[in-house]
Amino acid sequence: MSTLQIKHLFGLRGVSQSDIRTILDTAMDFRQVLERPVKKVPSLRGVTVVNLFFENSTRTRTSFELAEKRLSADTINFTTSNSSVKKGETLLDTLRNIEAMKIDLVVVRHKGTGVPKFLADHSKAIIVNAGDGAHEHPTQALLDMLTIEQHLGSLKNKRIAIIGDIRHSRVARSNLWGLTTMGAHVTLCAPSTLAPRNREFFNSVHFEQDVRKAVHEADAVIALRLQKERMDDSLLPSMREYRNFFGITRDVLEQASPSALIMHPGPINRGVELDSEMADSDQSVILEQVTNGVAVRMAVLFLLSGGRASE
Fold this sequence. Notes:
By secondary structure, the chain is of the alpha/beta class. It has two domains: 17-136 and 290-304, Aspartate/ornithine carbamoyltransferase (Rossmann fold); 138-286, Rossmann fold (3-Layer(aba) Sandwich), CATH 3.40.50. The protein has helices at residues 17-33, 58-70, 91-99, 115-121, 138-152, 170-181, 211-214, 239-246, 250-253, 276-279, 286-304, and strands at 48-53, 74-79, 105-110, 126-132, 159-163, 185-189, 206-208, 220-223, 261-263. The radius of gyration is 19 Å and the shape is globular. The model has no long low-confidence stretch (mean pLDDT 91).
């Protein structure tokens, strides 16, 4: 039997290889549950989970909510549009009021970097980060890793290219930490205006500004969504120019491994980050990523709540 060393999931930086392995293996077990006629298990019966979303996110919120229901947890959905936050209530007061309802676990998404850690410091509840600012989005990276393993086996020595808006992408950060921990070789590719400011990103990865060189012999190519809501308009001349130099097209993919996986965290700006021909091709595993997202979130919720994964 195995449990996690971590008590909360803030991100993947510093998370051990054994913890990541436990989550991925448990997610694979839950992936099989999702293929059954009855897609529900009683693993979290009696556990109350609050989905605390201060940012809009249809995909992530729906995926977490479905994962909770598949585990038979009691679920409460909280959004700022119908809360006292609109009336000026502080984040800490919001947490204390929710915690007074005797909840067990909080899934939080917030535009502020470090909010999940702040909540954990002031709460007895288990905290799961569903995306904080431009920091991390750990469950997205975990589902990406699960998808790659399903198709290509061990992540060790696999070549992964991450293309796009690295500076604003919490997905890129979590994938960087998680993939390198598991032994993969990561190449980041972005326009200079969308490259990360913090040079620590270059310690364990290769950075490339030529997209064809970035995907050369890659086993998987992850195209990132342009974070237009988080960027200054002056960072890119136009969407057309971005597509011409950094978009994933058939010509670009010819430089990658013939069996390279095409991935995207969604939603896709078709014809910008990724051509429709590529998004809908046999190499695309984007919809599998969505399904795996439910399995990964089931695994994270189950393990952090004290569930044990069989070895």
